[in-house]
Amino acid sequence: MVDAQGPPARTRRPGVVTLSSWLLILVAAIQVVNLILTLTTIGTVRNVLRDAYRGTAAEQAADFAYAAALGGAVLSLLFAIGLVVLALLNNRGKNGARITTWVVGGILFCCNGGGLVSNATGGLTGGGAPGGNMPSPEELQRRLSDALPSWYGPVTLLLGLLSLLALLAALILLALPKSNEFFRKPKPAWESPVPGGAYPAYPPAPGYPGQPPAPGYPSAPDYPPAPGQPGQPGQPGPSGPSSAPEDRPGPQPPSGS
Hints:
The structure is a single chain. This protein has 257 residues and is mostly helical. It has a domain at 11-124 and 140-183. Helices cover 53% and strands 3% of the residues. It is built from 6 helices and 2 strands, in the order E-H-H-H-H-H-H-E. The chain has helices spanning 15-53, 61-91, 95-120, 137-147, 152-173, 177-183; strands spanning 5-8, 188-190. The chain has a two-stranded antiparallel sheet. Helix 1 packs antiparallel against helix 2 and helix 1 (15-53) runs antiparallel to helix 5.
């Protein structure tokens, strides 16, 4: 007997899914680069803010900014690891990984977009008008620009834009029709039986009557019961000495003369 139920057949991975995975890995690499840049400059930023807010009511602002930068760096590393894992699972056709990619990617897209807007408007140095002896946002931005390398601002801005565009493209590629076909649950493949192969005949289950004879074929003959056994109702018994006596003519009287 030939097994007609073969292994499930999955559609070959399309190029849009592969490209989306590479874009996710690119975004993860950018997150790692941003982490390195943050760790190398966080001390300088802290010192500038301490000098700027020394002797003011917001003297602890430098410590808060330092803690926030460290938390953001750890979060960036977790996002980078998660994106690499999701990219590998997407290549294997895991639909749950694709849904998770949309959720995580949407959160990261909002975070990166908010970071770019914050950098464009002054970042930590932005805010309302200074009061008392508080330094102005312009003064803080000038001090940070003097303390940080000249390439830091343009590089971080370029990396942020590149990460935002790559992430958006990766999420869109996962929603295309070819991607939907790849992530759809595969159906079992059917294999035709081998020519000439026969399926075995199984006897009927015990307790069930057999099938009636096909039209045109005589049924099995009825055999008389064995000697000494009573016949079936409606059927004549066997002939022989044990049968009923037949009517025989009696002795004839002598004829008179």
